[in-house]
Amino acid sequence: TQLLEQSPQFLSIQEGENLTVYCNSSSVFSSLQWYRQEPGEGPVLLVTVVTGGEVKKLKRLTFQFGDARKDSSLHITAAQPGDTGLYLCAGDRTGTASKLTFGTGTRLQVTL
Amino acid sequence: GAVVSQHPSRVICKSGTSVKIECRSLDFQATTMFWYRQFPKQSLMLMATSNEGSKATYEQGVEKDKFLINHASLTLSTLTVTSAHPEDSSFYICSARETRNNEQFFGPGTRLTVL
Lengths: 112, 115
Hints:
By secondary structure, chain A is mainly beta.
């Protein structure tokens, strides 16, 4: 299963800083989802984007789907310690059995 | 939101024994469920797709005779790790696909430790 490449792999920032996580692939996806996972738990869905160029906001989180539907980004404004976790993007490839292809993951640590 | 449960949450077993993990969609029906494996600090790797009433579809490199999947109802899929060995120790996560909007909702995971 081809993985989506996420960058950075690890990010440690202080509370109040802004950050952007990128999710890139050479494949086109019919939709792309972002999840956050905490240690010992399953991923929790944050958002689904389906239209090229789409931008969705969830409080301090802004998600964008690339025009060509091959990439996405997650921007967090004024990060808080509660944002700490593993962020995963996952794409649903067009023409497949709708299996999700998961990204390599970005581990975010927000300190006081 | 949709809720998916897994049981057990943790299991420790001896090498050579079999372990069954259950995945249930609590408030919706799921014709398709997925089983993933996650190693420490890594992303999720899809093991197999479980379809209600039919055989599971396994990803390349996943032994179907070792990881038995049964999807007997629209709300329950089970993964049985047969003749478990220490290298099977991992975090196993299931997800259920909601047919209304094709979103996947994940269970809380099962940590398997094989001694």
